[in-house]
Amino acid sequence: MSVNRREMLRLGAAGAAGLILSSAAASQSLPGLLVPQTTGAGTPPAPTPVPAQPQVPAAPAGIDPQLFARAKAALDSHRIAPRDAIGIADFSRPSSEPRFHVVDLQNGTVESHLVCHGRGSDPSHSGYLERFSNAFGSYATSEGAYVTDDYYYGKYGLSLKVRGLDWTNNNAEPRAIVIHNAWYAEPEMIRLHGMLGRSEGCFAMPKASQDKVMRRLAGGRMIYADKLA
Hints:
This protein is an alpha+beta fold. The protein contains four helices and eight strands. The chain has helices at residues 5-29, 65-77, 188-193, 207-217; strands spanning 85-90, 100-104, 110-113, 144-154, 157-164, 178-181, 203-205, 222-226. An eight-stranded mixed β-sheet has the order 3-2-1-8-4-5-6-7. Strand 2 (100-104) and strand 3 (110-113) form a beta hairpin. The N and C termini lie far apart (104 Å).
């Protein structure tokens, strides 16, 4: 059978078109056989990294997590240099409970002590702090961050000055707010009256507690005083 030149050209064009259609169909039906796209020097694109989730510090035993978080935030915002220990006064608790916590930030241990609040913070002497004040003559406890300052000898013997770092307690030094011991802060007051006495705004403690607290927090360490709603 003879095929002329025109017929041969027609058959060749049809065969080429069939190959093209066959290749396209194979590409659609077998995507796994396609070579992946590459970038740069022939390496596949790196997967997008998943951002690490921030770790929320756990509160030490016996301390409200929200209060501990506020204290840690104050420690950072005020850029306190000594960061091995802090004091946290939880004035949400009554004066009959140990509510001044000395926290070792290196191992998470806590020592808790009795502490008085100011009489201006509890006018009815209920044993609970009702309000804070930074005003002169208020005889009230002030909220916020403090740092310990110098030792001095006063009415209650060896005592430790503090400085207020926030607008809510920046009158602490001229108001003579300090850490001292007092007879009305001793545990015997709880046995007799169900609560401690009241200070004039100072962190008044039992003598045994005051010695431990001053020894641990002296040297510019932070004390954070607050009350959760």
